[in-house]
Each structure stands twice: as structure tokens, then as C-alpha cells.
Design goal:
Elements: E1 7-9, E2 17-24, H1 26-38, H2 42-49, H3 51-58, E3 59-62, E4 69-74, E5 80-85, E6 87-89, H4 93-96, H5 106-111, E7 115-120, E8 123-128, E9 133-135, H6 154-162, H7 165-179, H8 183-216, E10 222-226, E11 232-236, E12 245-247, E13 253-254, E14 258-263, E15 265-269, H9 271-274, E16 280-283, H10 295-298, E17 310-311, E18 316-321, E19 329-334, H11 340-349, H12 357-386, H13 391-405, H14 410-427, E20 430-432, H15 437-441, E21 446-449, E22 461-469, E23 472-473, H16 489-496, E24 501-503, E25 506-508, H17 511-520, E26 523-525, H18 529-533, E27 541-544, E28 567-576, E29 581-588, E30 595-600, H19 602-607, H20 618-627, E31 630-639, H21 646-651, H22 654-657, E32 662-670, H23 677-686, E33 690-694, H24 699-708, E34 717-724, E35 733-738, E36 755-761, H25 762-771, H26 773-780, E37 783-787, H27 791-803, E38 808-812, H28 818-823, E39 826-829, E40 841-843, H29 850-887, H30 895-913, H31 934-959, H32 998-1018, H33 1032-1050, H34 1054-1060, H35 1067-1101, E41 1115-1116, E42 1127-1130, H36 1135-1146
Helix pairs in contact: 2-3, 6-8, 7-8, 7-13, 12-13, 12-29, 14-29, 16-17, 20-24, 25-26, 26-36, 29-31, 29-32, 30-32, 30-33, 31-32, 31-35, 32-33, 32-35
């Protein structure tokens, strides 16, 4: 493959792909067509399953520019995922496009009259001659504004499902059995397959319909668009293109696209995207005047930076505020699948494939069974030819060996355990939209938790306030609801600096803002729609104190008339997570000058205040509160210049307002732990499952909460890693410092090795990821607290942890956790809002107690999968051994013997052995992740050898019995006193298939008991599942089958013997068979229980991939780590620490 012919699409992005160009070749197509005819269509199926083979067999390589077909391969995992045919347009530019916003590409289009593109995952990729590659040119090619989730017809889904390799194999098996007149089991398999296909179709169709309904809310609505000369035109939302100016109706709407507000204000419910049902206020984009020459005057629009001005597709605009004669307008910036909602829908429609070792190993195991079947296939053909068996019998019996070795019921059997686990999860309030992930959850050895709303309560309680006057702190006070504080700037800031609004008469907004405002006891009033329309500008929101707080003495002057003490909020600068603050411009009634109020992260606010107004002990006081786990908010105020008029304030840059402020003090909020949190984390630690906190909150607050909930034990050390990006020619560097002094342990306690944990914030994480990627891998092995993390950084952290071989669980409340929930091996959303549609699991219980339950059920389902797979493999091999031994004497098992084994024993046992519930507690031992592991291979191979040995002994021993003779229809060896002269009977009475003989009967009895023995031996209970004796359907089935088999063996009934085509054998031989069965059972139990469980499991589980990290979330503190509070190391860490880090990573 020539390197220059290989193109990379979406380089550096999540959907990075390699692209190869191909051109259709007629003679290859003809050859493939001939091959399809010769193989009866099987070649077509093979090419359908293998897209790479399909392209390479029908096309020749060419450049991407000249390609007619492209082959795409994901750079993650390297699987060929799609073949896309190129669609060509030969129209002129004018015919294709009415509007061109980007003149850069006009020349390109005229030079290349053919516009060539292909569609992949609902995204169109166009050929760009300038870069000689395919690109998503959204600036030029918009298409219809529609998130089209097409619900496939039942017929299409059926065809796709039926063409699954397993179902094709089942079809082959059914045809073969029908040819061999083995109708009963064929009907049973068809019945099971139909139920399986119907269930699968129902589930898939239901998910498509749910997703279609979710996006249909905005699919086609009528919108008002501003045209030239201020004309308003009503069009369908599907006709919107970026650049259109739309009018947001005053009564609200569901947004049909992503648009940025250019005039007016909107209150929006974004729960569909963020999971937070709290309405947010969206303001118009800043519009600096001609005199303003700040960065913002020239900065280009960016979705992330200008999030507070952007109305996202699918979000609900509740209400708008506007000027008289002015409409609330927004400019369309993204349409269709390019929108925020479109990206969410794409991630659901086309999820990343989950690569799990169990499924890879299952295919390898099946290939081994196919190889065994191949040996039996050749053996049966050679044996039949040597014995001059008819050709039809040779074909049927040799192919029958394949269906015996590779059981067609395997998919249904493997699915049963997952279905049962899904039902049990549903009973405890955990809903699953991706059942295959249940097995993966059984391997989870690290869980990331969001803090607010997950580990702690959703709401914040006001613990107290600490005001500042003349550059020093007052003593902390419980609240600000006092008469002497009514006129203070501190209370005015609390009452005005928020984004609260009234919706249907109820105060609504951010919970923190709500608590802060309620603590003042003030009243908020908003202008009605009618009042607003009477004025030439937006009527301000007004706040005022209640009458009971007003001083009783009469006012000295009208300006100080307390009965009319009101503050109007003139301009609001919304909270920005990037800036970590919000501010407002307000005016006191009767005052000419305006005031600016600001609140935000204490470090940020203090940095914007005059130094003399910030107390000297600010850092110590703040640290004292954050170490106790309090959420601290700082307040500031500034009296604005009289020259700042209302109109100037509306267009001023916030940087001019948020400077030279006066520090007012601190608000201390308490975020209580949920009562279940410490107990659940303790259970996880006992089970050697590492816990990590990923939050957007303050670092010290997060560390404090981590200590309070037991994530970081009191005696452990926390080391904060601060990374500084390169600047002024200096290289990037990392500084290390202790977060606090760990609590000393009591002398009475045995001295344990001191352990350490890393903590870092989002900025440091980004710098380390970019400049120290090797260090990041080592840090995440001991990182316990990740604070101030942005949503995309949470996802990157999950990927980093997966990169060091962790199976990662993520538990969040759906707020900004969508990406991480999707990327984790097991994502659990505690939110039942629409955002949870992206999470594999959703818990109805709003606390983390669902996490151990999910892991327990995952472990139970995983062990059940192993048990079922091992049992089905043994069932195949036991039957294969029986048939192979009988083939040597030109015999076989009878149809009803097969039927009894396949339905009465196998199906009954398989579907009941999967019913074992999960063990009641999490244990420290983890189940293996794949079938190709020492203990499992040892288990299967030893049981195969045991079964082979005892069947061979039975087969050979029966022929050595003194009463043994070639069985004839009238042979009666049960009565040894009168031997029958078999030479008098006609040969024509002998069974054509030679089913009834002593070898067949002996092997049938022994093999039937072997199925039950391995079922009981493999049906493991503790420590991952409840003991089998608690699974009463399995116990009843197994005991019933044992009783029935012993009954027909020791007390033959003629009708049953005729039905099963078994012959009568002497009583002493039955006792010998019973002895063989008992010894077989004893050996099987001894090998599986004692040798495997006691010896091998301990050897394997003494070595974990993460070494000590699977056992403890921390690591020994490096002895040379005795430096002062902060040491700086450019580009690297000290040698001693580097060695420790290297050691921790490589263990």
C-alpha cells in the first residue's frame, strides 16, 4: 500500500479514520459474480461480513481524488468499519448553492466542476482540491436543517439480523438435520431462533423509535426569519442555514438549530444537553462600540467561549425579554447533525465499539471448536469410505460432526445470563440501554465519581458569612438577615449578583444563587410583558428588602426614603466557568451613579480587587474553610463613574467593569455528604476497587470531601501537582506541594506504611497531558482528586485511566458528565433526564449505592457467561467424543437420544444455571476478563480429558464383558441363563443405522450423567454468585434429571427404551456403569474445586495488572520526598521522585 494514497480524516479528533481510494473493476466483479453463483450465495455472505475483502476483491487501488469507492478504517482498534460509495454532482455552482459565505472555496468549485462527496455517520465529507483530501466543509455545504433518525423498517432490520453468522450457521444446521430426518430438534432450534430474533428486533426498533421521538420535537417547526429591509418571513426550520437571523418568539420555543443571541435576553431550560433542569439566562453577544478596542471587539465567535450567548438546538426557550419595537434575534450558527444535539444523537447512533476480551476470546474458542470439528469431519469421511458407506450418508454424517462440535444454541445460551442480570438490575432501579456492558461491569476495578449531586447533596446550605471592612475580616456570622445590614453593600451584592428569574411566579435559577438570595430575605420583582412593551428599553429586574427589615425611624430626606429602597439590575454578565465569576451592574433607586457587584471563586475575585481592600490573612481564612469542605464564594463591589450611562453599560466590555473592585467578604456554603456515600466507598475499598473524584469544584474543597467520605484515609498524604504552561520562552514545568499535614496515627495502632495521593486541577491536567504525556500515565495511577475539570477533560481522564489497563466505571448526575459516562466501560447516570440517554446505565436511586450493585450484577453475569460457555463447550465435546467412538463401529446416537440430550438436558440446564443471583457483597477477588486464561483453560481441558477417559473406558470395558455380543433385535443378555441363538434371525431385521447396541446404550448413560456432572461443577457460586442450591429451578431440574436417568438405568421401562433406542444390559453392568459415573463425578469435583479453586486461582490472582494499584488507591510515600511546601522542576521531576513514578507505573 503506497503511503501517499492513504488519507487521514478528522486528524487528531475522536473520529479519526484512514481512507483508501478504490475504483470498480469489471473483470473482478464478473469473477466475484461467478463465485457467488458457484457457492450458492455463500461468497456474497462472506463479503457482506468482511467489507475489506469485498472492496479488495471487486476494486483496484487508486488515488483518493479518482476514487469511486472509499474504504474507511478507524485508527482506534484498526477495524474496517465502512464502505462508502462516492456520489458525484456535475452541476454548476449556481445550481448547487444559492448562498456562499466563504469566498475561499469559490475558485475551488470552478476549478473542479464535479462536487464529490460521501456520507459517513450522518456527516458529509467533500473532496477539497486545495488540501487533496476529504473534509467536512460545513462553511459551504449546509444541507437540510434536520437531525434525521430514520427508523428502519422491520424487514430491513430482519434481514440485517438474520444475516448474522450464527443464524446462518443455525439455518445450515436445520437444513442438515431435516435431511437426516432429525425434525424435532430442528423445530426446537427454529423456535428459539425466532424468539431470539423477534426479541432483538423489538428492542432495536424500540430504541430507534425512542431516539426518533426525542429528536422529532424540533424536526419541523415554523420560524420567523429577518430578511432585507427588516422584512419578516415565515419558513420551515428545515430551510434554515447558518447566517440566517431568526426571531425568538416571546412565548418561547424549542430551538431547531444552534443560534447566537444578538439582541434581547432568553431564559432557557438546557436539561436535554446538560442534565441540569435549572433554567439559565442567555444574554446577547457583547457589541463593543467604535471606541472599544479590546480583545472582544475583534474576537471570533466560539461556541465554548460564548456558551452563555448561545441557544442550543433542542433546548427549551421558556421566555424572552425585549425592547419596544425590538425583537429578540439570534443568528443561526450550526444546523442539522453539526448542532450540539446533533452531535449527541450521532454519538448514540454510532457509539464506539466496546472491545472486551471475553468476546474476542469467545471467537478464538469457537475457532478451536471448528478445528476440532475439522478433525472429526476428516475422520468420519475416511472411516466411512474404508467401510464403503453410501455417499449420502457420508455427507450427512460428516457435516453432522460440525453441528455437534459448534452448538447452534450457543448465542441463545450466552444471552440468557445477560437477560436475567438486566431483569435483576431493573428490579433494583437500574435501567440499561446497552446489555452487553453488564458483563464488562464485572471487570470494573476503578470508579470515577462526580462530587456535587453524586457524592454530596445537590443543594447547598448557607453556613455563614464573613464580611470585610477596612481591609480586615469581621467574625463569621450565621446569616445576613439583619436590620443593620440592609443598607450594606455586602447584602446588596447578595441580593443582586445572581441569574435568578421568575417563571410562573416562582423563583428559578442556580441552586447556589437561590440559597444566597433567600438568605437575604429580599423580594425579587420582574416587569411583566405588558410593562416592558411600554418602555424604550428592557425594564430592569428589581430587588428590595421586606418591610419588616426596614428601620422604623422616618427617612431624613426623600433620597433616603427606606420605604422605596429598591435596586434595579441594569446589566448582567453571566457566570462563566472559564472566568469563574459573574457580575452585574445595578442602580439604587434615586441614585445617579451605578454600582458593579461581582461574585465568584475567591482567588479570582481577590485578584480583581484593590490590594488594600483584601485582608492580609485572606489566604489563611480561605484555606481554613476549604479544608473543612465548605464551598466559599467571594463578593466584591465598585462604584461606577457617573459618565457611564444606561446605553454605554449595555455595550461595555465586562473587563472594564470587573477591575479595581473593593473586596466585601466571603459567603460560606455547606455541601453535605449524602448519608450513603461513606459506606459505599468503604465497600468499594474493601473490594480493592479504586475510587477517584472528578469535579468542577475547588481543589481544597474536593480534597476535604475526599477525606470526609473516606476516599483519602486521614493518615495519607495528598500531593498537589501544579503544572505551568510555557510562557515568555520558558519551558513548561510542574511544581509539587503538600495539600495539608496528614493526621498522625495513634501510638496504640500498628505502624503502617505512609501512603500518598496526587491531586490536580483541570489546567494542570491539560498542561501535563500536552507537555508531559508520559508523566500523566504515572500520575493517574495515584491521582485521587481531579478538581476544576471541564467536561472534555473528564473524558480525557477516563481515556488516560483506560490507557493504563483499568476497567473504568463513571458515576455522575448527568450534568456535564455525558462524555465521560459514554466513554467509561460502565457509565451510571443518577439523572433520569434526557441526558441519561447517552449513559449505558441509569439509576432511579439518586445516590452511589447503585455502583456496588451494578458491579456485583456485572460479576455475576460475567461468571454466568463463563459457566455457560464452558458448559456448552463441554456439551459439544462430550457429544463429539460419544459420536466419534460410535462412528468407529459404524454406529451413532439415535434421533431421540440426541433430542433427549439437546432439549431435556442441555436447554433445561443452560437456562436454569444462569439464574443464580449475584453474591450479596463485593469481594476483593475479581473474575478473569477472558476465556483464554490459565484457570479457565485448565478447567475446560481437564474436564474434557476426564470425560474422554471415562467414555473410552466405558466403550472398551463393555466389549470385554463375558456376555458381550453384537446386538441383534432378539438379543437378551439380561437373562444370562438362556442364551439366544442369534444365527437363526434374518439380517434384514437389524437396524439400518445400527443405533441399538451395547456400546451406544453404555455411552448414552455415561454421557448423560457427564452433562449433569459438568453442569454442577461449572455452576460456581461464592464469591461472585449465590450458591447453586439457592437457585431452585436449577436444583429441581438437575435432581429431576438424575432421578429419571437412574430410574431408567436400574428399572428399564420398555416404552422408554424403545423411544430412546436403548437396549437392555445386565444388572451387574449397570452397577459398573453407576460406579464409573460416581468415580467420574468425584474426579471432576476434585479437580475443579480443590486443584483449580485452591491452587491455581491463588497463583493467578496474586499477580494483578496494576500491581498494588488494584489493592489500594494510594502508594507508599517516597522517602526522599522531604522538600518544602513548593519546589519547581522544569520539564521533569526530581530523580528520586521520577524513579518512584517509574516504579509505580511499571509495577
Amino acid at each position: 500500500m503506497e503511503k501517499e494514497d492513504l488519507k487521514v480524516l478528522n486528524k487528531g479528533e475522536e473520529e479519526e479514520m484512514e481512507l483508501q481510494g478504490y475504483r470498480l473493476c469489471r473483470w473482478r466483479l464478473a469473477l466475484v459474480g461467478l463465485g457467488v453463483l458457484c457457492t450458492g450465495g455463500f461468497l456474497l455472505l462472506l463479503l457482506y461480513w468482511m467489507p475489506e475483502w469485498c472492496v479488495k476483491s471487486t476494486c483496484t487501488r487508486t488515488t483518493a481524488r479518482d476514487a469511486e469507492v472509499v474504504l474507511l478504517r478507524s485508527t482506534v482498534g484498526g477495524q474496517y468499519s465502512c464502505i462508502a460509495s462516492l456520489i458525484k454532482y456535475s452541476k454548476s455552482v449556481k445550481e448547487c448553492f444559492k448562498t456562499t459565505l466563504c469566498l475561499t472555496f469559490v475558485h475551488l468549485l470552478f476549478c473542479s466542476p464535479q462536487i464529490r462527496y460521501f456520507t459517513f455517520h450522518s456527516t458529509k465529507y467533500y473532496w477539497n482540491d486545495e488540501v487533496q483530501n476529504f473534509e467536512v466543509l460545513t462553511r459551504l455545504f449546509f444541507g437540510v436543517n434536520e437531525i434525521a433518525v430514520k427508523v428502519p423498517s422491520v424487514f430491513k432490520l430482519l434481514i440485517k439480523e438474520v444475516l448474522n453468522p450464527f443464524y446462518i450457521f443455525q439455518l445450515f444446521s436445520v437444513i442438515l438435520w431435516s435431511a437426516d430426518e432429525y425434525y424435532y430438534y430442528a423445530v426446537a432450534i427454529v423456535f428459539m431462533s425466532v424468539i431470539s430474533i423477534a426479541t432483538s428486533l423489538y428492542t432495536i426498533k424500540k430504541q430507534y423509535v425512542m431516539l426518533h421521538d426525542m429528536v422529532a420535537a424540533h424536526s419541523i417547526v415554523r420560524v420567523s426569519v429577518c430578511r432585507a429591509n427588516n422584512d419578516i418571513e415565515e419558513i420551515l426550520s428545515t430551510d434554515l442555514v447558518p447566517g440566517d437571523v431568526i426571531v425568538i418568539p416571546s412565548n418561547g420555543t424549542i430551538m431547531p438549530c444552534d443560534a447566537v443571541l444578538v439582541s434581547g435576553t432568553c431564559i432557557v431550560n438546557e436539561s436535554m444537553l446538560t442534565g441540569e433542569s435549572v433554567p439559565v439566562t442567555k444574554t446577547n453577544l457583547p457589541n463593543p462600540g467604535p471606541g472599544e478596542r479590546g480583545e472582544e471587539a475583534y474576537s471570533a465567535y466560539n461556541t465554548e467561549e460564548h456558551k452563555r450567548h448561545t441557544l442550543f438546538c433542542g433546548t427549551n426557550v421558556i421566555q424572552t425579554r425585549f425592547y419596544t419595537g425590538e425583537l429578540v434575534k439570534a443568528v443561526v450558527v450550526r444546523t442539522g447533525f453539526s448542532t450540539a444535539k446533533g452531535q449527541l444523537v450521532r454519538s448514540i447512533l454510532y457509539p464506539k465499539p466496546t472491545d472486551f476480551k471475553l468476546y474476542r476470546d469467545a471467537y478464538l474458542f469457537l475457532l478451536c471448536l471448528v478445528a476440532v470439528a475439522g478433525i472429526g469431519f476428516v475422520y468420519s469421511i475416511v472411516l466411512s469410505i474404508m467401510n464403503k458407506v453410501p455417499a449420502k450418508t457420508i455427507i450427512i454424517e460428516s457435516l453432522d460432526i460440525i453441528t455437534i462440535t459448534v452448538p447452534p444454541a450457543l448465542p441463545a445460551a450466552m444471552t440468557a445470563g445477560i437477560v436475567y442480570a438486566q431483569r435483576r438490575l431493573k428490579r433494583i432501579g437500574i435501567f440499561c440501554i446497552s446489555p452487553q456492558r453488564i458483563n464488562i461491569c464485572g471487570q470494573i476495578n476503578l470508579v470515577c465519581f462526580d462530587k456535587t449531586g453524586t457524592l454530596t447533596e445537590d443543594g447547598l446550605d448557607l453556613w455563614g458569612v464573613q464580611r470585610v471592612e477596612n481591609g480586615s475580616f469581621h467574625l463569621s456570622e450565621e446569616n445576613a438577615y439583619k436590620e443593620n445590614l440592609v443598607k450594606s453593600q455586602f447584602v446588596a451584592c447578595m441580593a443582586t449578583c445572581h441569574s435568578l428569574t421568575k417563571i410562573e411566579g416562582q423563583l428559578s435559577g442556580d441552586p447556589l444563587d437561590l440559597k444566597m438570595f433567600e438568605a437575604t430575605g429580599w423580594i425579587l420583582e420582574e416587569a411583566t410583558e405588558e410593562e416592558t412593551s411600554l418602555h424604550n428599553r428592557i425594564m430592569p429586574t428589581v430587588v428590595r428588602p421586606p418591610k419588616q427589615l426596614l428601620p422604623p425611624e422616618p427617612a431624613v430626606s426623600p433620597e433616603q426614603d427606606m420605604s422605596a429602597y429598591e435596586i434595579g439590575i441594569v446589566r448582567q454578565f453571566p457566570f462563566s466557568s472559564a472566568l469563574q465569576r459573574m457580575s452585574v451592574v445595578a442602580r439604587l433607586l434615586g441614585e445617579k451613579r451605578m454600582d458593579a457587584y461581582m461574585k465568584g471563586a475567591p482567588e479570582v475575585v481577590a485578584g480583581l480587587c484593590k490590594k488594600e481592600t483584601v485582608p492580609e490573612n485572606f489566604a489563611e481564612v480561605l484555606e481554613g474553610y476549604t479544608k473543612q469542605g465548605f464551598r466559599v464564594i467571594a463578593l466584591a463591589h465598585r462604584r461606577l463613574e457617573s459618565k457611564l450611562t444606561w446605553h454605554k453599560v449595555q455595550n461595555i466590555n465586562r473587563d472594564h467593569i470587573e477591575a479595581n473592585m473593593e473586596f466585601l467578604g466571603l459567603i460560606i456554603m455547606q455541601n453535605k455528604l449524602k448519608p450513603e456515600t461513606p459506606g459505599v466507598l468503604q465497600d468499594l475499598h474493601r473490594a480493592n476497587i479504586r475510587t477517584v473524584m472528578v469535579t468542577g469544584d475547588n481543589m481544597l474543597t474536593a480534597i476535604s470531601v475526599a477525606r470526609d467520605c473516606g476516599m483519602i484515609p486521614p493518615q495519607d498524604t495528598v500531593i498537589i501537582a501544579d503544572a505551568i504552561p510555557p510562557h515568555d520562552g520558558q519551558a513548561a514545568k510542574i511544581t509539587w506541594r503538600y495539600a495539608d499535614k496528614p493526621t498522625k496515627t495513634s501510638r496504640l495502632e500498628p505502624k503502617t506504611q505512609e501512603l500518598y495521593h496526587f491531586a490536580m486541577n483541570g489546567k494542570s491536567f491539560a498542561v501535563i497531558a500536552e507537555h508531559f504525556p508520559d508523566m500523566l500515565q504515572k500520575l493517574v495511577l495515584h491521582g485521587t482528586v481531579f478538581a476544576r475539570m471541564a467536561p472534555d477533560q473528564k473524558t480525557q481522564l477516563i481515556e488516560a485511566l483506560q490507557g493504563v489497563d483499568y476497567f473504568v466505571g463513571m458515576c455522575g448526575d448527568g450534568a456535564n458528565d455525558c462524555g465521560a459516562l459514554k466513554r467509561a466501560h460502565g457509565g451510571i447516570s443518577l439523572s433520569e433526564l434526557e441526558a441519561s440517554v447517552a449513559s449505558p446505565f441509569t439509576s432511579r436511586t439518586p445516590n452511589i449505592s447503585c455502583v456496588p450493585s451494578l458491579i456485583r450484577e456485572g460479576r455475576a453475569a460475567l461468571i454466568t457467561s463463563f459457566c455457560v460457555f464452558k458448559f456448552m463447550a463441554l456439551y459439544s465435546i462430550i457429544q463429539y467424543i460419544s459420536v466419534t467412538l460410535l462412528y468407529s463401529i459404524l454406529s451413532n446416537l439415535g434421533d431421540f437420544q440426541f433430542l433427549f440430550i439437546d432439549i431435556a438436558i442441555i436447554l433445561l440446564i443452560v437456562f436454569t444455571m444462569s439464574l443464580n443471583p449475584a453474591w450479596k457483597e463485593l469481594v476483593s477477588r475479581r473474575p478473569p476478563s477472558g476465556l483464554i486464561s490459565g484457570p479457565l483453560l485448565f478447567s475446560v481441558l481437564t474436564q474434557i480429558l476426564i470425560c474422554l477417559g471415562f467414555q473410552t473406558i466405558t466403550f472398551l470395558w463393555v466389549r470385554q464383558q463375558p456376555w458381550y455380543t453384537v446386538w441383534m433385535p432378539l438379543t437378551d443378555v439380561c437373562n444370562l441363563t438362556s442364551h439366544i441363538n442369534v444365527s437363526d434371525h434374518n439380517d434384514t431385521e437389524i437396524d439400518d443405522h445400527n443405533i441399538q447396541n451395547f456400546e451406544n446404550t453404555s455411552l448414552f448413560y455415561v454421557s448423560c450423567f457427564q452433562y449433569l456432572i459438568v453442569a454442577i461443577v461449572f455452576s460456581k457460586g461464592k464469591p461472585f454468585r449465590q450458591p447453586s442450591y439457592k437457585n431452585w429451578p436449577f436444583v429441581v431440574s438437575a435432581v429431576s434429571l438424575y432421578i429419571f436417568l437412574l430410574f431408567i438405568m436400574f428399572h428399564p421401562i420398555e416404552s422408554i427404551d424403545e423411544f430412546l433406542e436403548i437396549v437392555c444390559v445386565p444388572f451387574d453392568w449397570r452397577l459398573k456403569l453407576f460406579f464409573i459415573i460416581l468415580v467420574n463425578a468425584a474426579v471432576s469435583v476434585l479437580v475443579e474445586t480443590f486443584i483449580l479453586d485452591i491452587v491455581l486461582w491463588k497463583l493467578v490472582f496474586s499477580r494483578d495488572k496494576q500491581g498494588n494499584f488494584g489493592v489500594t488507591p494510594a502508594a507508599p510515600t517516597p522517602q526522599p520526598f522531604s522538600f518544602s511546601s513548593c519546589v519547581v522542576f522544569p520539564l521533569s521531576v526530581p530523580t528520586s521522585f521520577s524513579n518512584v513514578a517509574e516504579h509505580t507505573f511499571l509495577m
